[in-house]
Specification:
2 copies of one chain form a homodimer. By secondary structure, the first copy, chain A, is an alpha/beta fold. Chain A has 3 domains: 10-116 and 265-349, FAD/NAD(P)-binding domain, CATH 3.50.50.100; 124-261, FAD/NAD(P)-binding domain (3-Layer(bba) Sandwich), CATH 3.50.50.60; 351-405, no CATH class. Helix content of chain A is 32%, strand content 25%. Chain A has 10 helices and 26 strands. Chain A has helices spanning 18-30, 54-58, 70-73, 124-127, 134-151, 171-191, 215-227, 269-273, 319-337, 373-400, and strands spanning 10-14, 37-42, 46-48, 67-69, 79-83, 86-90, 95-98, 101-104, 107-110, 114-116, 163-167, 199-203, 230-233, 238-242, 245-248, 253-255, 258-261, 265-267, 283-284, 297-299, 304-305, 307-308, 313-314, 352-356, 362-366, 369-372. In chain A, the strands form 9 sheets. A 5-stranded parallel β-sheet of chain A has the order 5-2-1-9-20, covered by helices on one side. A 4-stranded parallel β-sheet of chain A has the order 13-12-11-17. In chain A, strand 15 and strand 16 (253-255) form a beta hairpin. Chain A is globular and about 75 Å long. Chain A binds chain B through residues 63-64, 131, 135-136, 138-139, 141-143, 145-146, 148-150, 152-153, 190-192, and chain B through 63-64, 131, 135-136, 138-139, 141-143, 145-146, 148-150, 152-153, 190-192. Chains A, B: This is NADH dehydrogenase, NDH-2A. Chains A, B: Belongs to the NADH dehydrogenase family.
Chain lengths: 405, 405
């Protein structure tokens, strides 16, 4: 009698962001119980919606609404979940080193997400809020409310307590100031602060806000935000973030107790620590999403650098692309497991981009159509709900979804 | 034809606390439109319930519920309201100096309330929260929430962010820790903090908590609070409040980011600045509540020192006594105006004392009866509602009252 050893391949997924979660759901649907051991590693036992975090950070949505327990979305009979932090990937021995252990893999999916890009400006990590996470959003919110609460208790009122600086007029910075400017009148009322005492600045080094957006939409957004009291400083690099505010390249200082850093992201620092060739933490992936030279390692989401051939520039790291990458990645792993050598090429299908501006306001492009105001806001909420649907079906939409009306 | 000059007397009321507000309502009811000019001076255009502030400070009640606009309670056709701060009383020229003006008076009622008593401990004003005001309560609440929000963002977790010290185990300290200990589990849940990381201390220099309370009630309160995780340090004076916590007389240090000072109060500093003979900002008043040697100046509330002859010690400064003083004061002013020389003697009628312990818990004495738990909690809320009724009738109870069930 012949004994055949049937070792199931180990698929390890790093990170439970948009990419990791969609890969996990797809794999657990496509693979039978006995085809593979799938393990998902994540720092927290919850998944959260990075693209919604500007809302709890500004205090307009409960942070609970932006996250869900991993076990409530994934079938943990099919996927093993390990709560731990990734320290390093050792591709030579096909191991992942965790803070409290290690894992062997046959196939690895790296969806470790992003970190704040400081562009070398000193003081960002020490004096600015730069963590676009559930913990980070809660801290920004509570910090701002604490400054408002302190103000009236001072014998000599320090107006910088009520000065709020957002560094970066890109997507994240604009969405955050949109929410915050919408909430400021309410904060003023609650803490007995005269409205004119609150100063809001958006400071951007580039020559325009929302680079890449249609100029008409950019103007709409800026007009709207200015009407709510936001002051834009465009073409105005920040030299340093200090304990008391920011110093501009011009030498001027703006005093502020709250500086929120939103100038863009880079990939995970684990990427560089693990010896991959990378640009700002992002690996330029093969058309099938594998890391060059590593046939068993897929890179998805913010850690993947993908060139848009049409304009010869990288695609921006968005949730939309991360989710589409996850679909292709799951299919390609299945193909590899079946011994296939011809994998699917990833091609993003950009359906549109909508930025919320707080309240019932938003701007965006869907297809070739420009959207403003309530219409754009409606579409934005539909996009958010669509993601919940893809991840967890109608039940999750009902539980965490947003009313688009 | 004879011309008779009818100058109406000016009655000036300083402070819109329990005493000032009740005096104002009584005078406006008892005096006809043309009998006197009544002016109420207060720092804010709202009146607030000092005895409720432990609730918004702990975050269990909206600060809005503890205050009301003065114009919503008083008839400003009958009483002139001046929003200003009192700097000094010049009894020799019968003037009150305000920050932005001055007022002449024929009769003066001083109800300026209290300030924190530090007993000379250094660092209290710099490093502890000691303002038992609406602004102060909001600051304590937001400070605590901010520390909870910061905790999980630290690479090296600093447990002192989650250490909460209440200095003083008297009425205020116990009511505050009661509310806070009730809320801590909820805070832990919201900010993903393990419950055991939160430390709560009540530090008291005297040999007992709640001095003056029945020992059986004190034990009930301490057992209850200890079960919620509060650690008592009785007979344990604080030597100094520092930037990092408190230093005890023993030399030990407890590190804490939050120190709330609740060791009792003294009268307003305006009293001493104005040259009245006073003990810790309190004037030992005549039986008719006038300041000795000043026939036209009444002192009520926390600025009045009144000896309980039975035990030869001062009555504690409570809302109950302030309100009763206000009734007598209003009557005596009316008597004086009518040319009377024999004024009413003030005699407090202590109906009972109930301390809330958070949630549905309280302790107290009403008449000779000791009350615990839900029963005491019921009575406490009835007391709170009764005050609203006295001040503004059933409408105010409906608007700001507490559900006793």
């Amino acid at each position: 009698m012949e004994v055949i050893s049937l070792k199931k391949p180990s698929i390890v997924l790093l990170g439970a962001g948009y990419g990791g979660m969609i890969t996990a759901t797809r794999l657990s649907k496509q693979l039978g119980h006995n085809e593979a051991n799938i393990t998902l590693v994540n720092k927290h036992d919850y998944h959260y919606q990075t693209t919604w975090l500007h809302e709890p950070a500004a205090g307009t949505l409960s942070p609970e609404r932006t996250r869900m327990e991993i076990k409530s979305v994934l079938d943990l009979n099919k996927i093993k979940f390990v709560k731990d932090s990734v320290v390093e990937i050792k591709t030579d021995v096909k191991k992942v080193i965790l803070e409290n252990g290690e894992l062997d893999y046959d196939y690895l999916v790296v969806g470790l997400g992003s970190e704040a890009e400081t562009f070398g400006v000193p003081g960002v990590h020490e004096h600015a809020f730069s963590k676009w996470t559930v913990n980070g959003a809660r801290e920004v919110k509570e910090h701002i409310e604490y400054q408002f609460a302190r103000y009236n208790n001072m014998t000599e009122k320090r107006d910088e307590l009520l000065t709020l600086i957002v560094a970066g007029a890109g997507f994240t910075g604009i969405e955050f100031i949109g929410e915050l400017s919408e909430r400021v009148p309410e904060l003023c009322k609650h803490y007995d602060i005269p409205r004119e005492k609150v100063k809001m600045y958006v400071i951007e080094a580039a020559p325009t806000a929302l680079p890449g957006f249609d100029p008409e939409l950019v103007e709409y957004a800026m007009n709207l935000l200015e009407a709510r009291g936001v002051e834009f400083k465009i073409n105005c690099p920040i030299k340093e973030v200090t304990e008391t505010g920011v110093t501009l390249a011009s030498g001027d200082e703006i005093k502020a107790e709250t500086v929120v850093w939103a100038t863009g992201v880079r990939g995970s620092s684990v990427i560089e620590k693990s010896g991959f060739e990378a640009m700002r933490g992002r690996i330029k992936v093969e058309p099938d999403l594998r890391a060059p030279g590593h046939d068993d390692v897929f890179i998805i989401g913010d850690c993947a650098l993908l060139i848009n051939e049409e304009i010869n520039r990288p695609y921006p790291p968005t949730a939309q692309i991360a989710m589409q990458m996850a679909e292709t990645c799951a299919e390609n792993i299945k193909l590899l497991m079946k011994g296939g050598s011809s994998l699917k090429t990833f091609k993003p299908d950009i359906k549109g981009t909508v930025a919320s501006l707080g309240g019932k306001e938003a701007i965006g492009v869907v297809g070739t159509r420009k959207l403003f105001g309530a219409q754009a806001n409606f579409i934005k909420k539909m996009i958010d709900n669509r993601y919940l649907f893809l991840l967890g079906g109608p039940g999750l939409v009902l539980k965490k979804g947003k009313n688009p009306l």
